[in-house]
Automatic annotation (TrEMBL):
Pfam families: ILV_EDD_C, ILVD_EDD_N
InterPro entries for the chain: 6-phosphgluc_deHydtase, Dihydro-acid_dehy_C, DiOHA_6PGluconate_deHydtase_CS, ILV_EDD_C, ILV_EDD_N, IlvD/EDD_N
Catalytic activity: 6-phospho-D-gluconate = 2-dehydro-3-deoxy-6-phospho-D-gluconate + H2O
Gene name for this UniProt entry: edd
SUPFAM superfamilies: IlvD/EDD N-terminal domain-like (SSF143975), LeuD/IlvD-like (SSF52016)
Domain (Dihydroxy-acid/6-phosphogluconate dehydratase N-terminal): residue spans on this chain: 68-381
Full protein name: Phosphogluconate dehydratase
Gene3D superfamilies: IlvD/EDD C-terminal domain-like
Lineage, highest ranks first: Bacteria, Pseudomonadati, Pseudomonadota, Alphaproteobacteria, Hyphomicrobiales
Cofactor or coenzyme needed: [4Fe-4S] cluster
Protein species of origin: Rhizobium leguminosarum bv. viciae
HAMAP family: Edd
GO molecular-function terms, A-Z: 4 iron, 4 sulfur cluster binding; metal ion binding; phosphogluconate dehydratase activity
Length: 607
């Protein structure tokens, strides 16, 4: 069966599986859309509250039902580099909306937290839950029913998935995502990684480490490695939520502002008051979701999206599974080498041809659906472009290059970096897990070694510093799942395990926690479900048990007799230290209500 036919077959399978939930979703969406201009249902007192601070002209416009009003949901804060540029966006959007005969209001703000800041800290235990909280917060902003379309300003790890869930929950409204772009290139990522390993080995001090980190993360915009934040931007473009060519334009440039203005004007054009009504929930369908998964594989994107894409799809009534994601990975070749899967950063990816070239390659070989709806109003072929600044200050789009400008960073279907996307599902007597092998050397795709068990990442770090880990082993880091402690990313494990691997030991990680989109050269079976706190098999592993991780066959096994395994009582750990401090007590209801990893680790779609 051709790749195109296999993509179509998987898409059809998702459509059939999703019919009951998708049909109910569309019925609700169409009922909401049938009411017409939303604020027309508001009473006079309601409406007066909604435009009390507007100018007289805007009040006149909003008093009727012919002038569209854009609701801005912003993740602005000025602590985080990726979201700091959004400070000026509302003023730009209001001005552009006025030029186009519309109005724009900030409907609400949502929290935006950074895993880079909270890494290894108690606050990280709020991170995954912030996705669903962001969706709720955006829902509060849009619940005022004052708006004909929404513009979502967000970039990073949990923010964009949360905003997508909100956009699809308000799927009767058109929605456009407006990015801020990546920071300019700083210290090369491989050099940053080298200093981190030297610090882990005690060969450099904190001052040298901080200097390297500061040269890497040095200005406005997203971090430049290809983790979850930049995977988000790729997804928004290939799924049709961005204006074409807008994902990876640096902040503070004239083109960045022109794209923001264009997005505001386009949002006005696709409301129910115009001729191109494009409600987000109708626009995003099973084909759009498959396009997102294909883009993730083709670029070696973030493992976090095995959680987020599942949850995002469910917000539109679409039932995406890990099996779908794994099967698509087998079909889609890896076309990008961006750190941690290579030495380049996203600015190099953009310079090599970026999203326009990538989408052109995928379309050429039938690996993505062209017959989708997008905010631009045309199929996906409209996204095979480079965005430029025209002489009049408007956005000009030119066809993307036929060949990659830098084949070491961005390649063609004929000469991929590897035959598949490198994101696989593992199954076995330990449950289900995912693994990303695009940066793992082939000789490490199978690891069989005894278990060393830890109940925190600090415990592993301590054992490493004490010299207790100089041998072959699989680190079992358990009680790190969503119910246990909010499923924090376990980035602090990467340097010590990387050092041990470089010393020649065969090591791997097995965890019910997360390792994020920046997981790299050490094989890591992550998101193990059922998690330990639910009594999953991972809680029955004993020190010294032989574990076999086989990323080629897609299996994850503890080599213990089934009867022996069944007789073991799951280990129970006191998790009270995870329940208080740094806001964790506020999220106790989330820990109690959250669903399993393979269902998106969500409190919103788990019943």
């Amino acid at each position: 069966m051709s790749a195109h036919a296999r993509i179509s077959a998987i898409t059809h399978r998702i459509v059939e599986r999703s019919k009951p939930t998708r049909e109910r979703y569309l019925e609700r969406l169409r009922a909401a859309a049938s009411q017409g201009v939303q604020r027309s249902v508001l009473g006079c007192a309601n409406l007066a509250h909604g435009f009390a601070v507007c100018s007289p002209a805007d009040k006149d416009a909003l008093a009727g039902d012919r002038i569209p009003n854009l609701g801005i949901i912003t993740a602005y804060n000025d602590m985080l580099s990726a979201h700091q540029p959004f400070e000026t966006y509302p003023a730009i959007i209001r001005e552009a909306a006025a030029e186009a005969g519309g109005v724009a209001q900030v409907a609400g703000g949502v929290p935006a937290m950074c895993d880079g800041v909270t890494q290894g800290q108690p606050g990280m235990e709020l991170s995954l839950f912030s996705r669903d909280l962001i969706a709720m917060s955006a829902g509060v902003g849009l619940s005022h029913n004052m708006f004909d379309a929404a513009l979502f300003l967000g970039v990073c790890d949990k923010i964009v998935p949360g905003l997508v869930i909100a956009a699809l929950s308000f799927g009767h409204l058109p929605s456009i995502f407006v990015p801020a772009g990546p920071m300019t290139t700083g210290l090369p990522n491989d050099e940053k990684s080298r200093v981190r390993q030297l610090f882990a080995e005690g060969k450099v001090g904190r001052a040298e480490l901080l200097e390297a980190e500061s040269k890497s993360y040095h200005g406005p915009g997203t971090c430049t490695f290809y983790g979850t934040a930049n995977s988000n931007q790729m997804l928004m473009e290939i799924m049709g939520f961005h204006m074409p060519g807008s994902s990876f334009i640096n902040p503070g440039t004239p083109l960045r502002e022109a794209l923001t203005r264009e997005a505001a004007k386009r949002a006005l054009a696709i409301t129910a008051l115009g001729n191109e009504f494009t409600p987000a929930g109708e626009m995003i369908d099973e084909r759009s979701v498959v396009n997102g998964v294909v883009g993730l594989h083709a670029t070696g994107g973030s493992t976090n999206h095995t959680l987020h894409l599942v949850a995002m799809a469910r917000a539109a009534g679409i039932q995406l599974t890990w099996q779908d994601i794994a099967e698509l990975s087998e079909i889609v070749p890896l076309l990008a080498r961006v750190y941690p899967n290579g030495l380049a950063d996203v600015n190099h990816f953009q310079a090599a041809g970026g999203m326009g070239f990538l989408i052109k390659e995928l379309l050429k070989h039938g690996l993505v659906h062209d017959d989708v709806r997008t905010v631009f109003g045309q199929g996906l072929a409209a996204y095979t472009v480079d965005a430029r600044l025209g002489g009049n200050g408007a956005v000009l789009r030119e066809p993307s290059p036929e060949k990659s400008v830098d084949p070491k960073v961005l390649s063609s279907i004929e000469t991929p970096f590897q035959a598949n996307g490198g994101l696989k599902m593992l199954r076995g007597n330990l449950g289900k897990a995912v693994i990303k092998i695009s940066a793992v050397k082939p000789e490490r795709h199978i690891i069989e070694a005894p278990a060393i068990i830890f109940h925190s990442q600090q415990a592993l770090q301590d054992a490493f510093k004490e010299g207790k880990l100089n041998r072959d082993f699989i680190a079992v880091v358990r009680f790190q799942g969503p119910k246990a402690n909010g499923m924090p990313e376990l980035h602090k494990l990467t340097p010590p395990l990387g050092v041990l691997q470089d010393r020649g030991f065969r090591v791997a990680l097995l965890t019910d926690g997360r390792m994020s989109g920046a997981s790299g050269k050490v094989p890591a079976a992550i998101h193990v479900t059922p998690e330990a706190v639910d009594g999953g098999p991972i809680a029955r592993i004993r020190e010294g048990d032989i574990i076999r991780l086989d990323a080629i066959k897609g299996t994850l096994e503890v080599l213990v007799d089934a009867a022996d395994m069944a007789e073991r009582e799951p280990v129970v750990v006191d998790l009270s230290d995870n329940e208080f401090g740094m806001g964790r007590e506020l999220f106790a209801p989330f820990r109690r209500a959250v669903g399993p990893s393979d269902q998106g680790a969500s409190v919103l779609f788990h019943h």
